[in-house]
Design brief:
heterodimer; A: 447 residues; alpha+beta; Beta-Lactamase; Heat Shock Protein 90; 12 strands; 16% strand; B: 248 residues; alpha/beta; Rossmann fold; Arc Repressor Mutant, subunit A; 2 domains; five-stranded parallel sheet; four-stranded antiparallel sheet; 14 strands; 21% strand; elongated
Amino acid sequence: MLKARATLRLAALMAVSVAVLSLGAMALQYRLVATRLTLAQKELLSADLRGLGALYEQRRIIALRQAIDYRAASGGEELLLLTDREGRILAGTESSWPAEVAPEGAGFDLSTPQEITRDTERWLVVARELPGGFGLLAGRPLAPVDATLAALRRGMIGLALALLAAAALVGWVAARQVMGRIGRLNRLADQVAAGDLEARLPGPRRADEFGLLETHMHHMLDRIASLNRATHRLSDTIAHEMRTPLNRLATRLSEIEGQEEKVSQLREEMRGAIRIFDSLLDISRAEADQGSGGGLLPVDLSALAEGVWELYEALAEDKGLIPAATIAPDLMVLGDRTLISQMLANVMDNAIKYCAPGDRLTLTLTAGPLHILEIADSGPGLPEGMGEDVFERFTRAGRDRARGIRGHGLGLALVRAIAMRHGAKLSLPGVEKGLTIRLEWQPLASG
Amino acid sequence: MCLTRPLSCSESGRIMTDRILIIEDDPDIAAAVAGEVVALGCEPTHRDTLESGIAEAGAGDYRVIVLDRMLPGGDGVAAMAQIRAGGSRAMILVLSALGRAAERVEGLEKGADDYLPKPYEPEELRARLRALLRRGAIQVADNDLMAFGDLEIRLKARTVHVKRTHVPVSPREFALITFFARNSGHVVTRMQLLESVWNLHFDPGTNVVDVHVGRLRRKLEEAGAHMIRSVRGEGYLFAQNGGDAGGA
């Protein structure tokens, strides 16, 4: 499964932003409603006070007392209370003066309203001390406001949950769609990276930006494949154009009689030229095929190492070297039999070429998380500061020419190209004397 | 006494001349190959396109087909299946400018009996053609014992005796001497040995093969059998009397 974290993050961000914006709008609305409703209750309280004020203007306390008695009897929702200077109740909807309310001022206006809580309900009240020490309390309940706001809150929470769920669902569906389309492209890219240049997406292209991207990718792959074919054709053509005249030359050489020595030398020169040329083509081909598993089969690395070792051991002995091999049996890797043999032969040949009689030459192949193949010699090693440059094409140590060692600096370049073709790690571990070449192979379970 | 009597073209040609088909677009090379074929005592036929070559292979009774790869009409290696489908039982020798190890292995895996890269040396072509002709002609009577004068090779027991004395040889040396014995009287080249005895299809550059042949040769000579001699610029000859029989 493709882990498209970026797509999911984007979808989640969009869902959350939409939800937050909606919730913000709802909160604004809520505040507006709360203000409006409270204002309405204040208006009612103000009207009550104005009415009571008018009655007080006419007949003072008596009129107030009558009006409050009347209101209390008719059972309105407002709160009214009138007390004498001792605090005794003269008239009212309540049986006692609320302890938390202290009278303020003497006017019949809405200045200094107070909020109190009675039996869990909120009230908006105005308390006055009228001339003569009479207490007046007028109030309106805030309970209808609270009930409306509670209902509004419930509705909003439900809506917010629904909104979040909807946003998450839409985000998920969108992300899945995008991930699906991108996943297709990624799978194609993986296939191509694995070496299958001919891989293409099945089915028709849709007329959207993803479809366009798929079409662009196909065009790109077509172009790469055609360039690759052209490169292969070119190397074949070069081979043909160079080998055919050399072939005529070889035929003519065999017609020369009586100069066997010269003919033999010329032939050896020709073979050398072909070898250089083949090595160059082998290197470019191995580099071009690098990373692609195409053409690689399970091979017995132990058997290949054994075979090449056996071929070169005799040569090493004849040159007076001391050869020794330790090869763990049955180690399988994914590879090309001929290329691996060629690589090992090049390393062995190189080691034997540089070693002098009495030098050691060893090959070890050990099993492990990575199979390690080492070819070590106690020869002259690399010149100071050469290091991994030795694997570059046409790199030769200056001292070689002086010592009369022939070569073109392609053997180890081919070794590196073949190692890369197989995904094997090539390194030069530091050693006290001589040169050690180490190759680390990804193992393949045998059987 | 030699029980596996190899036949060469000239020997079998006394009864009926062997025919060799050359499918090659370069007239110079075709003429050179035809020259070698005639030198072997066989009758060459030349076709210069793949199409006419395939048709001819099906029509005539050829022992060997020398097939180029980059031909007008396509790749010779790709056409081998068609040649076989056409009923030809000829041995196929691919002779091509596509001579890298990978290409040789590809050709052999796709059914070629042998693969010789250009530029080839005439001796190499001759040796390989002869080996192919012989491969088709060897009559296996008793495949266990191969005897050459004092030298006896027992295939099942994998032993070598000279004048009844056992000569110890390594498994590789045994494979080497058997290959020599099967091609006795004819020059075998180093590349042939590398391909047949070591199953390696690249030119290692150094003469690693010489060391192995040298060791086998010394062992045989110490035991009194002077059978292997090197042929300058060509390879080796395995024959009785130090190769005086001469086949090259």
